[in-house]
Hints:
Order of helices and strands: HEEEEEEHHHH
Structural class: alpha+beta
CATH class of the largest domain: Mainly Beta
Helix content: 25-40%
Distance between the termini: 74 Å
Number of strands: 6
Number of domains: 2
Strand content: 25-35%
Largest sheet: 3 strands, antiparallel
CATH topology of the largest domain: Ubiquitin Ligase Nedd4, Chain: W
Shape: elongated
CATH architecture of the largest domain: Single Sheet
Amino acid sequence: MIPGGPRNQRQMELMMRRLGMKTEEVAGVEEVVVRTRTQEHVFQAPEVTILTVQGVRTYQVVGEPEIRPRSAGPTAAAAAAPPARPAGPPEEDVRLVMEQANVAREEAIEALFQTHGAPAEAILMLLSRGR
């Protein structure tokens, strides 16, 4: 409840602007999904409003959700799959590790994967292994 009794829409907008608040409707929303570890809350055609207060955006979703177990959706199968390896480290990093550590291409690539793509760490790791 707002002190001073009911106000009209224009007064509310002026007061919100003075407080640094801004609202905007998101048009054409078809679906909003809120996923928890065990469930999905699926809102079909909800009303979505964004409230911005001092640069922080808060989303308000209004509608009736369908609550279903998380495993029912295709996302559960994707989450259970092991993460795919990236395409590979840059060629210049592979060559650098091969030359500096005097190793084969496969060893250089594996070392770069193990060091998350850091050539210097890969070289040090390979050189320390050879001792």
